[in-house]
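Holo prediction — manganese (II) ion.
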Amino acid sequence: MKSRSDLPTLLRTARSALVAGHVNPDGDSVGSSLALYHLFTGLGITTTLYSAEPYPYNFLFLPGADKVVHELPLIEPDFYVVVDAGSPQRVGEALYRQMSVTRRPKLFFDHHVSYRDPGAFFDQSFLDDAAAATALLVYRFMKQHGHPVTREIAVAVYAAVMSDTGGMRYSSTNREAFAVLAELVDMLEPWEIAAKIWEEVPHAQLQLLAEVLASIRLLAGGKAALFEIRREQLERYKLGPDNVDTFINYARAISGVEVAMRFRELAPGRYKVSMRSKGNIDAAKISNEFGGGGHRNAAGFEFAGSFDDACKLVEEIVARVACQ
Ligand SMILES: [Mn+2]
């Protein structure tokens, strides 16, 4: 079984594959998926590039990103590869269900520490929590087995490493990350990739930001800043949840504000709430009151009710938590 389902063998024998990243996809998930997609298609394997959710706007420039599909193919692929997901469940419900019952090989590339595949789910895993990005594990495999690194693959790996290290700033940044970027740098334009990842927003995002900033509510004597993002707004501007990720920073930056809360509407009367705090307020404490969790400076929970209800509750809870 093992020998038939390892990646070098599959690359010689399989005719089709499915590559999937995780829900709420980030640059590493997209870049790792695309590196494998280009490797496989280059070897003549018909490859489905799958993502349960749309790729973030800032990674749509990556070559091949337009090939992503959000529906599972009708005909089952010869094998599956999951990247960067932390655990197999995070590929999304439909694919997880299919992979749970399939007899086809399943492989896994990841650098997250939380999941140690005991071989119970995957047939072969490439895991290393010392890697700065999952894309580096894909790159290692390619080098080890002598697969040529094309320009498309170089751009995908470079963007994945850059984004997952916050531009080589996070504690995961290491010698391998620098060495691989140096190997790739002649095949691409670093300034162009940096600009695409960090310096571009769609015009509609700024229009929505203007609308949202004007609607920020200051509560609890100016200690809490709350705002809502309704589904209708995202639909009207044709934007996704990733387009509003940074909005909370504006609310938190307001002088006197100690906690900022973003209420993103999931369905009528149901919200996903993200919190960022600074100063003395413990965001996790507020989150706990709503049945959620998190850290002192970043927490979240789901809220059932209206935004007005939420504001009243927050007013009361912040007053109490701030006194503790
Ligand atoms: Mn990652």
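READOUT: The CA atoms of residues 204 and 237 lie 6 Å apart.
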